């Protein structure tokens, strides 16, 4: 299957999940995860209507983004080391993977130097997996309250990576929990948070049923990464 065909299939699945949960197709933003993909594949996807691409390594993004068409938009979705924050602030329109106050402070400093406002999502380790980055649910409100004081950062919602399972139905509780956490955050902030970034190739249908506004899809669009 070509990238164009894969995108059609993914969009159909998004539409079906929206219909099943009484949501509008326009409420869900598709981010094509292009890590490990060459510019040719990214251009092919953009010709099929993909506007936003997700990358998980600053180094790779730094060499790839400048040689891709300049109308593409980029989201950082991987763990970010503080020494890469400056490049990250320059390259990406959103950082979805803010996983500590320490990192947020560094992004604030870099954004200040670049005179930029940075939309961010807080990455939450909902399932408490030792192998994953992300803020622990128990300290989320406290961490968010501190990050919310940083004037250059705009908290727009939460992001999570669900544990991998061959049966996506099993991770439904993880998505439901992230939605509950978003409600608690909104209560604490006294303001709405627009985004829930959850769902990947294996489980995005379920994530949409549970309220995802951003899905991050790699394999189902580009095929297996080499
Ligand atoms: C790689 C990656 C994805 C996409 O995963 P697929 O299973 O290929 O769809 C989504 N989110 C993050 C954070 C990733 O690192």
Supply the key terms.
226 residues, alpha/beta, TIM Barrel, 8-stranded parallel sheet, 9 helices, globular, binds pyridoxal-5'-phosphate
**Biggest sheet, open or closed, and with what strands and sense?**
8 strands, parallel
What general form does the structure show?
globular
Using the CA coordinates, give the radius of gyration. 17 Å
Helix share bin: 25-40%
Average per-residue pLDDT, rounded, comes to 97
CATH class: Alpha Beta
Figure out the total of helices.
9
- Hetero groups: pyridoxal-5'-phosphate
Q: Strand-residue fraction?
A: 15-25%
SS-based class: alpha/beta
CATH architecture: Alpha-Beta Barrel
Determine the N-to-C terminus distance. Answer: 17 Å
CATH topology: TIM Barrel
Tell me the CATH superfamily: Alanine racemase
Summarize this entry quickly.
The chain has 226 residues and is of the alpha/beta class.
Question: Would you write up a description of this structure?
Answer:
The protein contains 9 helices and 8 strands. It has an 8-stranded parallel sheet with strand order 7-6-5-4-3-2-1-8. The two termini are 17 Å apart. With 226 residues, it is of the alpha/beta class. It has helices at residues 3-20, 39-47, 58-64, 85-91, 101-113, 140-147, 172-189, 204-209, 219-222, and strands at 29-33, 52-55, 73-76, 94-98, 118-123, 153-159, 195-197, 214-217. The mean pLDDT is 97. The radius of gyration is 17 Å and the shape is globular. It has one domain: Alpha-Beta Barrel (TIM Barrel), CATH 3.20.20.10. The structure holds pyridoxal-5'-phosphate (PLP). The site of pyridoxal-5'-phosphate (PLP) has 14 residues, from strand 8 and helix 9. The site of pyridoxal-5'-phosphate has 14 residues, from strand 8 and helix 9.
